[in-house]
């Protein structure tokens, strides 16, 4: 059974009058855009908190899953794109599974993450954002993910290798990589998917939506 206890909701700083003002055209515009692009019935959310209760990483989030949906209804786009939540989310879909109104919470958060990645907003979780970017680059190049290429490309991102050396994470990754190589679980050379044309078409369509 899911625990029904959640911490008190903390909304952005401001008065009630300011919040009411934001519910107007700004909120409706962003809400309709998100519903149109994700297919999620975000308007159906009645803040039962079940998504937050079911989330295994909600305690790491600055904006809880149920608050994400409410922020969209209010039109608080910038606050969402600047949050740590969109990068911390595991996309495990526990939130979606427990939603009584079948709101696609996980898909909504994933869409916000993609919006942030295509915007000029500085990510709150830089390392996670870089991993997300590199993961998408791998899909764009090969249509699939090769772990060796993925981690190599990630380590070439500005500041990543230096940070891993400082924390000792690089040595751990190398040891794990050698173990996987010995067991035949790690392929050194990536192979392209046969459906690359279709995959790149999807990328172009997605970028068009984000414009």
UniProtKB/TrEMBL annotation:
Keywords per UniProt: 4Fe-4S, Iron, Iron-sulfur, Metal-binding, Oxidoreductase
Positions of the 4Fe-4S ferredoxin-type domain: 36-66
A Pfam family recorded for this sequence: Fer4_8
UniProt entry tagged with the keyword Signal: no
PROSITE patterns: 4FE4S_FER_1 (PS00198), 4FE4S_FER_2 (PS51379)
Top-rank taxon, per record: Bacteria
SUPFAM superfamilies in the cross-refs: alpha-helical ferredoxin (SSF46548)
A GO molecular function held by the record: metal ion binding
Cellular component terms per the entry's GO annotation: plasma membrane
The keyword Iron-sulfur belongs to this UniProt entry's keyword annotation: yes
Protein name (record): 4Fe-4S dicluster domain-containing protein
């Amino acid at each position: 059974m899911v625990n029904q206890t959640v911490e008190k909701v903390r909304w952005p700083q401001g008065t009630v009058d300011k919040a009411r003002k934001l519910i107007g055209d700004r909120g409706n515009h962003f809400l309709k855009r998100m519903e149109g692009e994700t297919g999620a019935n975000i308007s159906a959310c009645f803040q039962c908190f079940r998504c937050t209760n079911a989330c295994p990483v909600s305690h790491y989030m600055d904006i809880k899953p149920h608050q994400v949906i409410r922020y969209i209804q209010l039109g608080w786009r910038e606050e969402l794109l600047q949050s740590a939540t969109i990068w911390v989310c595991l996309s495990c879909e526990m939130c979606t599974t427990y939603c009584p109104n079948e709101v696609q919470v996980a898909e909504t958060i994933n869409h916000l993450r993609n919006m942030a990645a295509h915007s000029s907003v500085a990510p709150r979780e830089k390392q996670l954002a870089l991993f997300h970017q590199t993961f998408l680059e791998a899909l764009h190049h090969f249509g699939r993910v090769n772990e060796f290429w993925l981690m190599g490309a990630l380590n070439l991102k500005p500041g990543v290798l230096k940070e891993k050396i400082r924390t000792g994470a690089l040595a751990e990754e190398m040891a794990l990589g050698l173990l996987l190589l010995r067991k035949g679980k790690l392929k050194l050379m990536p192979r392209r998917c046969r459906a690359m044309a279709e995959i790149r078409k999807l990328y172009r369509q997605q970028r068009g939506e984000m414009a």
